Amino acid sequence: MRDVQARIIEELNVSPVIDPAEQVRARIDFLKAYLRTSGAAGFVLGISGGQDSTLAGMLCRKAVEELVEEGDPARFIAVRLPYGVQRDEADAQVALAYIRPQETVVFNIKESVDELAEEYGEGVGTALSDFGKGNVKARMRMIAQYAIAGEGRLLVVGTDHAAEAVTGFFTKYGDGGADILPLTGLTKRQGRALLEFLEAPEDIHLKVPTADLLDHDPGQSDEANLGLKYHDIDAFLEGHDIDPEIAERIEQRFLQTRHKRAVPVSMFDDWWI
Ligand SMILES: Nc1ncnc2c1ncn2[C@@H]1O[C@H](COP(=O)(O)OP(=O)(O)OC[C@H]2O[C@@H]([n+]3cccc(C(=O)O)c3)[C@H](O)[C@@H]2O)[C@@H](O)[C@H]1O
Ligand SMILES: Nc1ncnc2c1ncn2[C@@H]1O[C@H](COP(=O)(O)OP(=O)(O)OP(=O)(O)O)[C@@H](O)[C@H]1O
Ligand SMILES: [Mg+2]
Protein backbone atom coordinates (compact mmCIF):
# COMPACT_ATOMS: atom_id res chain seq x y z
CA MET A 1 0.00 0.00 0.00
CA ARG A 2 1.15 3.58 -0.66
CA ASP A 3 2.31 5.62 2.37
CA VAL A 4 -0.14 8.48 1.80
CA GLN A 5 -2.94 5.97 1.22
CA ALA A 6 -2.26 4.37 4.62
CA ARG A 7 -2.30 7.79 6.31
CA ILE A 8 -5.58 8.75 4.61
CA ILE A 9 -7.23 5.48 5.64
CA GLU A 10 -6.20 6.12 9.25
CA GLU A 11 -7.23 9.78 9.25
CA LEU A 12 -10.66 8.97 7.78
CA ASN A 13 -11.26 6.02 10.13
CA VAL A 14 -11.91 3.47 7.39
CA SER A 15 -12.05 -0.25 8.22
CA PRO A 16 -11.20 -2.38 5.17
CA VAL A 17 -13.70 -5.05 6.18
CA ILE A 18 -16.93 -4.41 8.10
CA ASP A 19 -19.78 -6.39 9.60
CA PRO A 20 -22.96 -4.50 8.59
CA ALA A 21 -24.94 -5.68 11.63
CA GLU A 22 -22.23 -4.47 14.03
CA GLN A 23 -21.87 -1.19 12.16
CA VAL A 24 -25.59 -0.47 12.26
CA ARG A 25 -25.71 -1.20 16.00
CA ALA A 26 -22.64 0.93 16.78
CA ARG A 27 -23.88 3.89 14.76
CA ILE A 28 -27.37 3.83 16.31
CA ASP A 29 -25.77 3.59 19.76
CA PHE A 30 -23.56 6.58 18.92
CA LEU A 31 -26.58 8.68 17.88
CA LYS A 32 -28.40 7.76 21.11
CA ALA A 33 -25.42 8.35 23.40
CA TYR A 34 -24.53 11.69 21.86
CA LEU A 35 -28.11 12.92 21.97
CA ARG A 36 -28.41 11.99 25.64
CA THR A 37 -25.12 13.70 26.53
CA SER A 38 -25.84 16.83 24.48
CA GLY A 39 -29.23 17.40 26.07
CA ALA A 40 -30.65 18.23 22.64
CA ALA A 41 -34.22 17.22 21.82
CA GLY A 42 -33.60 15.22 18.63
CA PHE A 43 -32.36 15.24 15.07
CA VAL A 44 -33.12 16.99 11.81
CA LEU A 45 -31.93 15.60 8.46
CA GLY A 46 -32.55 16.39 4.79
CA ILE A 47 -33.87 13.44 2.79
CA SER A 48 -32.97 13.64 -0.91
CA GLY A 49 -33.93 10.20 -2.18
CA GLY A 50 -30.22 9.27 -2.44
CA GLN A 51 -28.29 6.53 -0.70
CA ASP A 52 -26.57 8.50 2.06
CA SER A 53 -29.56 10.34 3.50
CA THR A 54 -31.67 7.18 3.32
CA LEU A 55 -29.11 5.33 5.43
CA ALA A 56 -28.58 8.20 7.87
CA GLY A 57 -32.38 8.69 8.06
CA MET A 58 -32.99 5.04 8.91
CA LEU A 59 -30.34 5.16 11.64
CA CYS A 60 -31.91 8.33 13.11
CA ARG A 61 -35.43 6.88 13.03
CA LYS A 62 -34.30 3.74 14.80
CA ALA A 63 -32.20 5.68 17.35
CA VAL A 64 -35.13 7.93 18.23
CA GLU A 65 -37.56 4.99 18.35
CA GLU A 66 -35.28 3.21 20.84
CA LEU A 67 -34.78 6.35 22.94
CA VAL A 68 -38.54 6.83 23.22
CA GLU A 69 -39.03 3.16 24.12
CA GLU A 70 -36.38 3.56 26.82
CA GLY A 71 -38.25 6.54 28.28
CA ASP A 72 -36.14 9.36 26.83
CA PRO A 73 -38.35 11.62 24.71
CA ALA A 74 -36.68 12.46 21.38
CA ARG A 75 -37.70 13.70 17.93
CA PHE A 76 -36.56 13.01 14.40
CA ILE A 77 -37.63 15.48 11.73
CA ALA A 78 -36.96 14.42 8.12
CA VAL A 79 -36.90 17.40 5.78
CA ARG A 80 -37.62 17.37 2.09
CA LEU A 81 -35.68 20.25 0.58
CA PRO A 82 -36.49 20.31 -3.14
CA TYR A 83 -35.42 23.11 -5.45
CA GLY A 84 -38.76 23.61 -7.23
CA VAL A 85 -40.03 20.22 -8.40
CA GLN A 86 -37.34 17.60 -7.86
CA ARG A 87 -36.75 15.45 -10.96
CA ASP A 88 -36.54 12.28 -8.83
CA GLU A 89 -39.20 13.21 -6.26
CA ALA A 90 -40.56 9.66 -6.59
CA ASP A 91 -37.28 8.30 -5.14
CA ALA A 92 -37.48 10.75 -2.24
CA GLN A 93 -40.99 9.47 -1.50
CA VAL A 94 -39.74 5.86 -1.65
CA ALA A 95 -37.00 6.82 0.83
CA LEU A 96 -39.49 8.47 3.21
CA ALA A 97 -41.89 5.51 3.01
CA TYR A 98 -38.99 3.22 3.87
CA ILE A 99 -37.51 5.37 6.68
CA ARG A 100 -40.88 6.16 8.30
CA PRO A 101 -39.52 9.23 10.13
CA GLN A 102 -41.40 10.32 13.25
CA GLU A 103 -42.04 13.76 11.61
CA THR A 104 -41.67 15.14 8.07
CA VAL A 105 -41.39 18.74 6.89
CA VAL A 106 -41.28 20.07 3.31
CA PHE A 107 -39.24 23.19 2.72
CA ASN A 108 -38.86 24.36 -0.88
CA ILE A 109 -35.57 26.24 -1.33
CA LYS A 110 -36.28 27.58 -4.84
CA GLU A 111 -37.52 31.06 -4.00
CA SER A 112 -34.78 31.86 -1.52
CA VAL A 113 -32.04 30.52 -3.83
CA ASP A 114 -33.40 32.36 -6.87
CA GLU A 115 -33.74 35.57 -4.86
CA LEU A 116 -30.14 35.31 -3.71
CA ALA A 117 -28.93 34.61 -7.26
CA GLU A 118 -30.81 37.67 -8.49
CA GLU A 119 -29.38 39.89 -5.75
CA TYR A 120 -25.94 38.50 -6.61
CA GLY A 121 -26.37 39.59 -10.22
CA GLU A 122 -27.50 43.07 -9.20
CA GLY A 123 -24.94 43.55 -6.44
CA VAL A 124 -21.86 42.02 -8.04
CA GLY A 125 -22.70 42.95 -11.61
CA THR A 126 -22.15 39.51 -13.12
CA ALA A 127 -24.45 36.48 -13.08
CA LEU A 128 -23.87 33.77 -10.50
CA SER A 129 -22.60 30.67 -12.35
CA ASP A 130 -24.64 27.48 -12.38
CA PHE A 131 -21.86 25.86 -10.32
CA GLY A 132 -21.89 28.71 -7.77
CA LYS A 133 -25.69 28.55 -7.59
CA GLY A 134 -25.38 24.81 -6.89
CA ASN A 135 -23.33 25.59 -3.79
CA VAL A 136 -25.94 28.19 -2.76
CA LYS A 137 -28.58 25.43 -2.99
CA ALA A 138 -26.50 23.19 -0.72
CA ARG A 139 -26.01 26.07 1.75
CA MET A 140 -29.69 27.04 1.65
CA ARG A 141 -30.51 23.46 2.68
CA MET A 142 -28.11 23.92 5.60
CA ILE A 143 -29.81 27.21 6.58
CA ALA A 144 -33.26 25.58 6.48
CA GLN A 145 -32.13 22.68 8.64
CA TYR A 146 -30.46 24.99 11.19
CA ALA A 147 -33.63 27.12 11.34
CA ILE A 148 -35.60 24.00 12.27
CA ALA A 149 -32.86 22.81 14.64
CA GLY A 150 -32.63 26.20 16.37
CA GLU A 151 -36.34 26.42 17.08
CA GLY A 152 -36.59 22.83 18.31
CA ARG A 153 -33.21 22.41 20.10
CA LEU A 154 -32.37 19.71 17.55
CA LEU A 155 -29.06 18.55 16.09
CA VAL A 156 -28.43 18.74 12.34
CA VAL A 157 -27.35 15.38 10.96
CA GLY A 158 -24.75 15.33 8.17
CA THR A 159 -24.24 12.48 5.72
CA ASP A 160 -20.51 12.82 5.07
CA HIS A 161 -18.64 9.51 4.78
CA ALA A 162 -15.13 8.48 3.81
CA ALA A 163 -15.77 8.26 0.05
CA GLU A 164 -16.89 11.92 0.00
CA ALA A 165 -14.52 13.17 2.69
CA VAL A 166 -11.45 11.89 0.84
CA THR A 167 -12.10 14.07 -2.21
CA GLY A 168 -13.78 16.94 -0.30
CA PHE A 169 -16.86 16.29 -2.42
CA PHE A 170 -19.32 18.41 -0.48
CA THR A 171 -20.13 22.10 -0.17
CA LYS A 172 -18.18 23.71 2.66
CA TYR A 173 -20.74 24.83 5.27
CA GLY A 174 -23.48 23.52 2.96
CA ASP A 175 -24.09 19.80 3.21
CA GLY A 176 -20.70 19.83 5.01
CA GLY A 177 -22.27 21.97 7.79
CA ALA A 178 -23.73 19.68 10.43
CA ASP A 179 -23.58 18.79 14.11
CA ILE A 180 -23.29 15.03 14.02
CA LEU A 181 -22.08 12.55 11.40
CA PRO A 182 -23.38 8.98 11.71
CA LEU A 183 -21.73 7.71 8.49
CA THR A 184 -18.10 8.72 9.14
CA GLY A 185 -15.53 6.15 8.01
CA LEU A 186 -17.76 4.25 5.59
CA THR A 187 -16.91 3.81 1.92
CA LYS A 188 -19.75 4.17 -0.57
CA ARG A 189 -20.18 0.40 -1.01
CA GLN A 190 -20.01 -0.18 2.75
CA GLY A 191 -22.89 2.28 3.11
CA ARG A 192 -24.73 0.27 0.46
CA ALA A 193 -24.04 -2.93 2.43
CA LEU A 194 -25.61 -1.32 5.53
CA LEU A 195 -28.68 -0.38 3.49
CA GLU A 196 -28.94 -3.94 2.17
CA PHE A 197 -28.70 -5.24 5.73
CA LEU A 198 -31.46 -2.81 6.67
CA GLU A 199 -33.57 -4.12 3.76
CA ALA A 200 -33.80 -0.80 1.96
CA PRO A 201 -35.58 -0.81 -1.41
CA GLU A 202 -33.22 -1.56 -4.32
CA ASP A 203 -34.35 1.65 -6.04
CA ILE A 204 -32.41 3.51 -3.38
CA HIS A 205 -29.28 1.53 -2.75
CA LEU A 206 -28.64 0.86 -6.44
CA LYS A 207 -29.32 4.48 -7.39
CA VAL A 208 -26.56 6.43 -9.15
CA PRO A 209 -25.17 8.95 -6.62
CA THR A 210 -25.80 12.58 -7.56
CA ALA A 211 -25.33 15.93 -5.84
CA ASP A 212 -28.12 17.18 -8.16
CA LEU A 213 -27.08 20.82 -7.78
CA LEU A 214 -26.99 22.04 -11.38
CA ASP A 215 -29.86 23.69 -13.29
CA HIS A 216 -28.17 22.85 -16.59
CA ASP A 217 -27.27 19.23 -15.85
CA PRO A 218 -29.85 17.94 -13.36
CA GLY A 219 -29.00 14.58 -11.85
CA GLN A 220 -25.35 14.79 -12.99
CA SER A 221 -23.64 11.74 -11.49
CA ASP A 222 -21.01 12.33 -8.81
CA GLU A 223 -18.64 10.20 -10.89
CA ALA A 224 -19.04 12.48 -13.94
CA ASN A 225 -18.52 15.56 -11.77
CA LEU A 226 -15.49 14.14 -9.97
CA GLY A 227 -13.86 12.35 -12.89
CA LEU A 228 -13.33 9.45 -10.49
CA LYS A 229 -15.28 6.24 -9.94
CA TYR A 230 -16.58 5.27 -6.47
CA HIS A 231 -15.34 1.76 -7.25
CA ASP A 232 -11.76 3.13 -7.34
CA ILE A 233 -12.24 5.50 -4.39
CA ASP A 234 -13.67 2.64 -2.28
CA ALA A 235 -10.89 0.25 -3.30
CA PHE A 236 -8.28 2.92 -2.44
CA LEU A 237 -9.88 3.53 0.96
CA GLU A 238 -10.16 -0.18 1.70
CA GLY A 239 -6.39 -0.46 1.19
CA HIS A 240 -6.27 -2.16 -2.22
CA ASP A 241 -3.66 -1.45 -4.86
CA ILE A 242 -5.30 0.57 -7.62
CA ASP A 243 -4.01 2.21 -10.80
CA PRO A 244 -1.25 4.52 -9.47
CA GLU A 245 -2.40 7.39 -11.68
CA ILE A 246 -5.89 7.23 -10.13
CA ALA A 247 -4.44 6.85 -6.62
CA GLU A 248 -2.40 10.00 -7.19
CA ARG A 249 -5.49 11.94 -8.28
CA ILE A 250 -7.35 10.85 -5.16
CA GLU A 251 -4.38 11.83 -2.97
CA GLN A 252 -4.13 15.21 -4.68
CA ARG A 253 -7.80 15.92 -4.04
CA PHE A 254 -7.39 14.84 -0.43
CA LEU A 255 -4.55 17.33 0.08
CA GLN A 256 -6.27 20.18 -1.82
CA THR A 257 -9.43 19.83 0.27
CA ARG A 258 -7.84 19.60 3.73
CA HIS A 259 -9.36 22.95 4.65
CA LYS A 260 -12.85 21.47 4.24
CA ARG A 261 -12.23 18.82 6.88
CA ALA A 262 -10.93 21.26 9.51
CA VAL A 263 -12.34 24.19 11.47
CA PRO A 264 -11.30 27.54 9.90
CA VAL A 265 -7.53 27.77 9.87
CA SER A 266 -5.76 30.10 12.30
CA MET A 267 -2.09 30.88 12.93
CA PHE A 268 -2.08 28.30 15.71
CA ASP A 269 -2.79 25.42 13.29
CA ASP A 270 -0.10 23.48 11.50
CA TRP A 271 -2.07 20.95 9.44
CA TRP A 272 -1.56 23.07 6.29
CA ILE A 273 2.25 23.38 6.47
N1 LIG B 1 -6.85 26.43 0.83
C1 LIG B 1 -8.00 26.90 1.34
N2 LIG B 1 -8.07 27.18 2.66
C2 LIG B 1 -9.23 27.63 3.21
N3 LIG B 1 -10.37 27.80 2.51
C3 LIG B 1 -10.32 27.54 1.18
C4 LIG B 1 -9.17 27.06 0.55
N4 LIG B 1 -9.43 26.85 -0.77
C5 LIG B 1 -10.70 27.20 -0.95
N5 LIG B 1 -11.28 27.61 0.22
C6 LIG B 1 -12.68 28.04 0.44
O1 LIG B 1 -13.51 26.97 0.03
C7 LIG B 1 -14.42 27.42 -0.97
C8 LIG B 1 -14.65 26.28 -1.97
O2 LIG B 1 -15.34 25.21 -1.36
P1 LIG B 1 -16.88 25.00 -1.70
O3 LIG B 1 -17.63 26.26 -1.51
O4 LIG B 1 -17.33 23.79 -0.97
O5 LIG B 1 -16.88 24.74 -3.30
P2 LIG B 1 -16.21 23.66 -4.23
O6 LIG B 1 -15.37 22.69 -3.49
O7 LIG B 1 -15.58 24.37 -5.35
O8 LIG B 1 -17.50 22.93 -4.79
C9 LIG B 1 -18.23 21.97 -4.06
C10 LIG B 1 -18.14 20.63 -4.78
O9 LIG B 1 -18.80 19.66 -3.98
C11 LIG B 1 -19.78 19.03 -4.76
N6 LIG B 1 -20.92 18.69 -3.90
C12 LIG B 1 -21.56 19.67 -3.21
C13 LIG B 1 -22.66 19.34 -2.43
C14 LIG B 1 -23.08 18.02 -2.35
C15 LIG B 1 -22.37 17.06 -3.05
C16 LIG B 1 -22.83 15.65 -3.02
O10 LIG B 1 -22.02 14.74 -3.04
O11 LIG B 1 -24.02 15.44 -3.02
C17 LIG B 1 -21.28 17.41 -3.82
C18 LIG B 1 -20.17 20.02 -5.82
O12 LIG B 1 -20.75 19.38 -6.93
C19 LIG B 1 -18.83 20.65 -6.13
O13 LIG B 1 -18.11 19.87 -7.05
C20 LIG B 1 -13.75 28.65 -1.59
O14 LIG B 1 -14.72 29.50 -2.14
C21 LIG B 1 -13.05 29.26 -0.38
O15 LIG B 1 -13.98 30.02 0.34
N1 LIG C 1 -33.24 17.62 -2.51
C1 LIG C 1 -32.85 17.41 -1.27
N2 LIG C 1 -33.75 17.33 -0.26
C2 LIG C 1 -33.36 17.11 1.01
N3 LIG C 1 -32.06 16.97 1.37
C3 LIG C 1 -31.12 17.03 0.41
C4 LIG C 1 -31.45 17.24 -0.95
N4 LIG C 1 -30.31 17.25 -1.67
C5 LIG C 1 -29.30 17.05 -0.78
N5 LIG C 1 -29.79 16.91 0.47
C6 LIG C 1 -29.01 16.69 1.70
O1 LIG C 1 -27.62 16.86 1.38
C7 LIG C 1 -26.92 15.64 1.63
C8 LIG C 1 -25.76 15.49 0.67
O2 LIG C 1 -26.20 15.06 -0.60
P1 LIG C 1 -25.59 13.72 -1.23
O3 LIG C 1 -26.01 13.71 -2.66
O4 LIG C 1 -24.16 13.60 -0.90
O5 LIG C 1 -26.34 12.53 -0.44
P2 LIG C 1 -27.57 11.63 -0.90
O6 LIG C 1 -28.34 12.32 -1.95
O7 LIG C 1 -28.29 11.28 0.34
O8 LIG C 1 -26.88 10.31 -1.48
P3 LIG C 1 -26.10 10.12 -2.87
O9 LIG C 1 -24.70 10.59 -2.62
O10 LIG C 1 -26.13 8.65 -3.08
O11 LIG C 1 -26.78 10.91 -3.94
C9 LIG C 1 -28.00 14.57 1.55
O12 LIG C 1 -27.59 13.40 2.22
C10 LIG C 1 -29.19 15.26 2.19
O13 LIG C 1 -29.11 15.23 3.61
MG1 LIG D 1 -27.60 12.90 -3.75
From TrEMBL:
Gene3D superfamilies: HUPs (3.40.50.620). Pathway: Cofactor biosynthesis; NAD(+) biosynthesis; NAD(+) from deamido-NAD(+) (ammonia route): step 1/1. ATP binds at G46, I47, S48, G49, G50, Q51, D52, S53, T159, K188, T210. The keyword Transcription does not apply. GO terms for biological process: NAD+ biosynthetic process. It holds the Pfam family NAD_synthase. Its EC number is 6.3.1.5. Residues 24-264 form the NAD/GMP synthase domain. It is an enzyme of class 6 (ligase). One of its GO terms (cellular component) is cytoplasm. Mg(2+) binds at D52, E164. Deamido-NAD(+) binds at R139, K172, D179, H259, K260. SUPFAM superfamilies: Adenine nucleotide alpha hydrolases-like (SSF52402). It catalyses: deamido-NAD(+) + NH4(+) + ATP = AMP + diphosphate + NAD(+) + H(+). Keywords: ATP-binding, Ligase, Magnesium, Metal-binding, NAD, Nucleotide-binding. HAMAP family: NadE_ammonia_dep (MF_00193). Homodimer. This is NH(3)-dependent NAD(+) synthetase. The gene is nadE.
